[in-house]
Amino acid sequence: MKNTGTIVALALLVAACSPQGETHNSHETHDPKGHAAESPFARAPDKAGGGVHDTMNMISAGDADNDFLRAMIPHHQRAVAMARTELEYGRDPQVRALAEKVIATREAEMVQMRAWLAARGASMDKPAKAGAK
Length: 133
Fold this sequence. Notes:
This protein is mainly alpha-helical and 133 residues long. 62% of the residues lie in helices and 5% in strands.
């Protein structure tokens, strides 16, 4: 995907050019009549359980590998929830195909990460001691 870098750079440019003082709810979209409506994607992370703050507040035992795995699982859960929302509401066949790929890939990765945590004596609820493998 050669365009990935271009897309990321464009997104950063748009974000940098956005007015800083403007108040806007990023979870809102507007219907054709101009009324604000909450996007189904605003609720997708809630369906996945756990939020960014839960990940940021997780207890660490000082093992970066375990912490990475324990932070990535909720991240992937939120990605899967958003992809499922796309399948529920989206109509573009290419975007829906991407959502299906995200679900399959992230679910497989979560299985692998949970297995690695278990092998390291850790879980989502319990960090292993630093250096434990």
